[in-house]
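lol so apparently i was supposed to do this last week
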Amino acid sequence: MKIFADTAEVQEIQVLQDLGIIDGVTTNPSLIAKSGRDIREVLVEICSICPGDISGETVSTEAEGMVREGRWLREIADNMVVKVPLTPAGIRACKTLSQDRHPVNVTLCFSANQALLAAKAGARYISPFVGRLDDLGQDGMELIADIREIYDNYGFDTQILTASVRGPQHVLAAAKIGSDVFTAPPKVIFQLFNHPLTDKGLKAFLDDWAKTGQTLGRTDSKRR
Ligand code: G3P
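anyway here it is w/ SN-glycerol-3-phosphate bound
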């Protein structure tokens, strides 16, 4: 399962990249706005930090505008992926860009039928927003399972990119269903490390080791 960082904060991306646990990054207009930075500048930096797929989102509401913006985004770096919304214009732009061999991430997906349309249009990724469905009292993970079933039924190679992930429980559920990717804020990705028994166990190991008086890494393994 691939892990994408859902952020436009370059320092956070660098930390995750150094840990070797991320395969890409997703951004959207809200995240770029939050960074307070120029979109081109920030995407250039992100693309150079992380060699995986980096999604940058179009803001036009017309297909032609999305295609134009998509081509502009693709000139930033080879690993840019064009993100378009799941509207008729977005699906049309996805088809055009995909035919021109530009990878597309179709975002703002809230139903399995929408995901079917994105796959038909040749999207590399479909981004269903599980957290926002949960916010409405629906079950976001049911959507991931439905899309998985439909894509497998017909052999679509569009990758399911579970988005709007709010915590480790979403990651676990998405992984069990077989989502290809999840994208989450760095805070959530760091939460995946946590278990109290890991901290407790490590403390016990180090306390016991200290009692031996030995130094690891010395060839003679002598006590101090
Ligand atoms: O990248 C889009 C998506 O992950 C947004 O998540 O938390 O704003 O619903 P959220």
